[in-house]
Write a structure and sequence with these properties.
By secondary structure, the chain is α/β, with parallel strands linked by helices. The protein folds into two domains: 140 residues, OB fold (Dihydrolipoamide Acetyltransferase, E2P); 165 residues, Rossmann fold, CATH 3.40.50.150. The chain has nine helices and 16 strands. The strands form three sheets. It has a seven-stranded mixed β-sheet, with helices on one face. Strands 12-11-10-13-14-16-15 form a seven-stranded mixed β-sheet, with helices on both faces. A two-stranded antiparallel sheet has the order 8-9. Helix 1 runs parallel beside helix 9, helix 2 crosses helix 3 and helix 7 runs parallel beside helix 8. The N and C termini lie far apart (51 Å). Bound molecules: S-adenosyl-L-homocysteine. The site of S-adenosyl-L-homocysteine (SAH) has 18 residues, from helix 5 and strand 11.
Length: 393
């Protein structure tokens, strides 16, 4: 199947021959046929179409070099003509595209995946077969610390029993001494989710530490972490600049992940309250406060909508709310409670302007929309991130 079905069209833009040789079959990128400037024009227009009704949309912040940016990389394996191949699924299929060098992934991750594929070809380790549920080796997940250089390799296998595991890991570490931790993740379910719930550390600490906006962050395999570190620093700086913090605010960081935004803002406020549903992420957030010697942040594992309702019930004062929900956006419950909590400012960070527009519509009776800033976190794909500043009427 070719990409024409889902290919992004831009009026007036010339289609170019994609830089990536896999662009026509791989399901990873949908903007390979536009040059980078045209991609930015398309994204600017998309945000203007969806959010322009609320106010002026600032110029999108793009990347100087939009290649090799993904710090989290996933590869799947398949046996093709008795050879193991690795890559991503072909669009709308479960056939793996044999990719040697993906131009949006970290270069180091590309090299490690190539090594693992070679090792698999030289071993008797069986590749997992999705149709029959037989075999062992399913996926590899690699996280690289953009600033720290630390590297985590997660070997996702279908069973606890991994014959010649030690030999496999030893050979991998010998070839890539820069790997700082290796984790075995067990996923024996019939699922398109990459990671299972059970994990075992094989080398190192089981997480990486990276630096972002001068703070250190511990990141474990299942925690959310923004995948484009260069742009994340720009995104977070914008969010914190928009909040115009004076030092005495109580800041609520909702959907906080491993605590990144709250901890970066912690030097500029009186108190940070973070809430997040994923327990691994919240453990990372608590560890990250300690790692940075931050004393004024508290993190809670809870559903954000339930949690904010509780804050309203307890009549807690919150001066600034920063929310950064997943693609589905926030909820009517959360936004209703946010209005009751009535912070002076709301900074809404979103990876989906569609749900963000829906959500803003629910609070715009009580808040003025002051600034709208798109940031390109995902070059060569049609995804776009936005930060919106709202101020209490
Ligand atoms: N602000 C963080 C994470 C943003 S991603 C960062 O920039 O790194 C969105 C986060 O929302 C994820 O960590 C996800 O686990 C969390 N999440 C999803 N549903 C949630 C809910 N109902 N309540 C609280 N957190 C939720």
């Amino acid at each position: 199947m070719t990409k024409s079905s889902s290919r992004i069209k831009l009026a007036d833009a010339r289609e170019i021959e994609p830089l990536c040789p896999y662009a026509k079959i791989c399901g990873g990128c949908d903007m390979q046929h536009l040059n980078y400037n045209d991609q930015l024009i398309w994204k600017q227009k998309r945000v203007e179409d969806l959010l322009g009704g609320f106010g002026v949309v600032e110029q999108i912040i793009g990347m100087e070099d939009p290649t090799y940016y993904r710090n989290k990389v996933h590869a799947t394996f398949q046996v093709r003509r008795r050879r193991v191949v690795s890559g991503m699924y072909e669009e709308n299929t479960h056939k793996v595209v044999d990719i040697n060098n993906c131009m949006i992934q970290s270069k180091k991750a590309n090299e490690i995946i190539a090594t693992i594929t070679k090792q698999l070809n030289n071993s008797r380790i069986e590749i997992f077969n999705e149709d029959t549920g037989e075999g062992l080796f399913r996926h590899v997940l690699i996280r690289t610390g953009y600033n720290s250089g630390q590297i985590m390799v997660v070997l996702v296998v279908a069973s606890n029993f991994f014959p010649s595991r030690n030999k496999f890991v030893k050979a991998l570490m010998r070839k890539h001494p820069e790997i700082t931790t290796v984790v075995q993740n067990i996923n024996n379910r019939d699922t398109s989710m990459v990671l299972g719930f059970e994990e075992r550390k094989l080398r190192g600490s089981g997480y990486i530490i990276d630096t972002l906006c001068d703070k250190k962050f511990r990141i474990s395999s299942r925690s959310f972490y923004q995948i484009n570190s260069v742009q994340t620093e720009k995104l977070y700086s914008k969010a914190i600049e928009f909040a115009e913090l004076s030092g005495d605010e109580v800041l609520l960081d909702a959907y906080c992940g491993i605590g990144t935004i709250g901890l970066i803002a912690s030097d500029h406020v009186e108190e940070v309250i973070g809430v997040e549903l994923n327990s691994d992420a919240i453990q990372d957030a608590i560890a990250n406060s300690r790692l940075n010697n931050v004393k004024n942040a508290r993190f809670y594992k809870a559903d954000a909508s339930e949690f904010i309702k509780g804050l309203v019930r307890e009549k807690r004062q919150v001066d600034v709310l920063i929310l950064d929900p997943p693609r589905e956006g926030s909820t009517a419950d959360f936004l209703g409670s946010a209005k009751q909590l009535s912070p002076k400012k709301i900074v809404y960070v979103s990876c989906n302007p569609e749900t963000q527009a829906r959500d803003i519509n629910m609070i715009k009776d009580a808040y003025d929309i002051k600034k709208i800033q798109p940031v390109d976190m995902f070059p060569f794909t049609s995804h776009v991130e936005t930060v919106v500043l709202m101020s209490r009427k």
